[in-house]
Amino acid sequence: MSAESVIEEAASSRPPRRDPFAAPDVSKNLRRSSVRGASVMSFSRVAGMGLRFISTGILARMISRDDFGLFAMTVVISGFLGIFMDVGLSQATIQRAEINHRQISTLFWINVALGAVVSAVFALSAPAIAAFYGQPALVGMIPVLAVSFLFGSLGLQHLALLTRNMRYPLLAGIEIFSMFAGVVTGVWMAWQGMGYWSLVGMAVAPPVAKTAAAWLALRWIPGLPSRGNGVRSMLKFGGDVLGFNIVNYFSRQADTVLIAKFCGSAPVAAYEKAYSLLLMPVGQINGPLGSVSIPALSRLQQDPERFRRYFLNAILLVCSLSMPVIAGITLFADEVVAVWLGPDWAASADLFRLLALAALIGGISNPAGWVLISLGLTKRYRLLGLANSAVIVAAFVIGLVFGPKEAGETASMRGVAIAYSAAMLLNFLPYWAWALKDTPVAIKAVLKTMVVPALACVPAAALALWVKGLSGGDAIHWPLTLSAMAAFGVAYAAVLLFGFGKLAFFRSIASEFRSR
Questions:
Q1: 116 phi and psi, to 5 degrees?
Q2: pLDDT block averages, 10 residues each, the chain of length 516
Q3: Which end of the chain is more exposed for a tag (fewer CB within 10 A), N or C?
Q4: Which phi and psi angles does 172 have, rounded to 5°?
Q5: pLDDT number for residue 456
Q6: pLDDT at 412
């Protein structure tokens, strides 16, 4: 086989040497591929969550809250600039029905050029960012962090091709390897007494490791960029995705920027850790399911009934896993903070409870984007993000200015957290109604699917609170706490599987996990 034919095979619309959708029983193969892919990617996300949880707990005891807060200030800016490194081109590669070597080579060089520009902009903006926050240390940190953009851009199209071809075991291995590289680097640097530089090292190592692993996993060598190869429509698609990502990121990070600016490094560290812990498990659920659902839904565009059925099953999985996790973290916030971060971070526990609704609604609303991307409705996707973000950012400002007036460093943070949850609740129904308009999925069916796991959480939470309350005091009583956690999990599973009759659904999912 020639080198050119190998390249064309890697960039084709079907996985090399096997196509899950080509067999006579297409529905069964699609389900099997999705379930197995989700299981593999979920494993990588769970492993990554465990690594982050452990490493953060270690670092929280080795470096100060001010160091975490200082790094959080850079993350807000670097995360925003990172959106421009991809500009939605990875999603375009995954969603398109047909692609070829010339197109992906051109997208590769566009990504690399954008990565170099973003890296330079971030490095050169270091003095301005340091002046904005009043933190001179950022002048030295930011140029080092900027290197990660250049390395990350070199692997974007390789990772997109692996995702398109549903090479989930490889993707999972790459993800775990890159996270492990970051954790080892960060912990070793902290052990050497490098303070906030250990967090910088933990941020730079993963993109370097991920790109190297992606190139080894997919031996695809990009050619020179070319014109007239049909990339223009892919750039339009990517531009709409970029528009959504920009406004969505700004709305999700505006609270951190405001608190960092007006409250300081220690308060923003407490706020950021509270919200990141809530989002961490939700991300481990949505990430794997999204990575397999978007390619699958893209292949079902011409079959509305199967599209609808597939999406509702995905929503049931997302809600059945996300809702009890968020509810559990909220119920046991004090215990989670004590174990994970230590007593110096006690202020984050109250913020967990106030941010829980925002994190939950954000997590279960994320799949709306899967519908729009897979159907190519990216203009609506962009406008939806703009409208949603406007309400959220306005809520942040209102919460900061008109929030609780009591003394203490948590007052402003509590105001922002309350406003955030209120805005997400206000946006929930309009967001879904607009997203699903004129699509194969009806909002009534989505809400009916969501309400089942939500109701299953109610008796489970009541039982857990009763068991936890048997201690009769404010101090953490670990035997009763562990019993309450177990009671919550068992009660939730019993109500969901037997009370609402979802045992057959999850049994079929489990059988796909086991089958080979």
A1: -65, -40
A2: 38 37 40 61 67 77 79 78 73 70 82 88 89 85 89 86 78 85 88 85 90 86 74 70 72 72 69 72 74 79 87 90 88 80 71 85 88 85 84 83 57 78 90 92 94 94 89 71 91 93 80 52
A3: C
A4: -65, -45
A5: 94
A6: 65
pLDDT reported for residue 118 = 86
Nearest CA to 484 out of 275, 327, 355 is that of 327
Token duo for residue 372: 């729009």
Cα–Cα distance, 130 to 74 (Å, whole number): 9
**Alpha helix positions (H), 192-230:** 196-217
Tokens of 105: 């080579």
The Cα 55–Cα 271 span in angstroms is: 18
Q: How far is CA 409 from the centre of its chain?
A: 28
> Which of 53-90 are b and which e, b meaning 16 or more Cβ less than 10 Å from the residue's Cβ?
bebbeebbebbebbbbbbbbbbbbbbebbbbbbbbbbb
The DSSP-derived string for 179-191 is HHHHHHHHHHHHH
Phi, psi for residue 439 in degrees, rounded to 5: -115, 170
Contacts with 423 (C-beta within 8 Å, 6 or more apart), sequence order: 358, 391, 392, 394, 395
Cβ(405)–Cβ(395) under 8 Å?
A: no
Per the structure block, which two tokens stand in for 183?
A: 């954790």
| Cβ atoms of residues 107 and 94 within 8 Å | no
User: Rounded CA gap, 433 and 248, in Å?
Assistant: 18
Furthest CA-CA distance within the chain = 74
| 3-class secondary structure per residue, 385-438 | HHHHHHHHHHHHHHHHHHCCCCCCCCHHHHHHHHHHHHHHHHHHHHHHHHHHCC
Report the 10 Å Cβ neighbour count for 391: 16
Only one residue has tokens 């529905």, namely 27
Q: Which two tokens stand for residue 143?
A: 């140029």
Q: Are 171 and 162 in contact (CB under 8 A)?
A: yes
Contact (CB, 8 A) for 122 and 142: yes
Distance CA 84, CA 86 (A): 5
Give the CA distances from residue 482 to residues 81, 166, 325, 473, 485, in Å, rounded to whole numbers and listed in that order. Answer: 42, 39, 15, 16, 5
Structure tokens at 106: 């051109």
Q: Whole-prediction pTM value?
A: 0.65
161 neighbors 93 (Cβ within 8 angstroms): yes
